[in-house]
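Supplementary Methods, section 5.1.

A reviewer requested that the exact input to the structure prediction be made available. We therefore reproduce it here, unchanged from the version used in the analyses.
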Amino acid sequence: IRMQISVNGQVEEIEAQSLDSYLDSKLLLGRRIAVELNGEIVPKSQFSTVMLVDGDVLEIVHAIGGG
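The structure derived from this sequence is encoded token-by-token as follows.
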């Protein structure tokens, strides 16, 4: 099933999948990121149980280290 989601303001067409699978496909798993789904922060512990659905709005923010 193909669906559309918005990721950081860009519309993407993807297959139905978990947030975990989506992040893995974008090579983001294991990186220091924060994920907001439809206005709510998703804890890393829930990435594998959250399923993306048509119309979801994702915001993915990379944590930048340094000082």
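The chain has a mean pLDDT of 94. These observations are discussed further in the main text.
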